[in-house]
Design brief:
Layout (H helix, E strand, L loop, with lengths): L2 H15 L9 E3 L2 E9 L2 E8 L4 E8 L2
Antiparallel strand pairs: 1-2, 2-3, 3-4
């Protein structure tokens, strides 16, 4: 990921998914509400939300 895209992606994560990982246009993957997909700064990500420790773990990043 080039530096300018990485900067936009990091800013988008801080502004949207970090404060509200269940909102911001994200969608559950299947029946598990904690397994989600979203687009941040044009980058499609799949991630898990861990409610007990307040973390978001990105498991797949796809960018073109």
């Amino acid at each position: 990921m080039d530096p300018s895209l990485r900067a936009r992606f990091d800013a988008g994560m801080r502004a949207s998914l970090v404060p509200d990982p269940y909102g911001q246009g994200s969608a559950p993957m299947g029946s598990d509400e904690d397994r989600r997909e979203a687009t941040v700064a044009g980058v499609v990500i799949r991630y898990y939300v861990s409610r007990s420790v307040l973390t978001v773990t990105v498991v797949r990043v796809v960018f073109l």
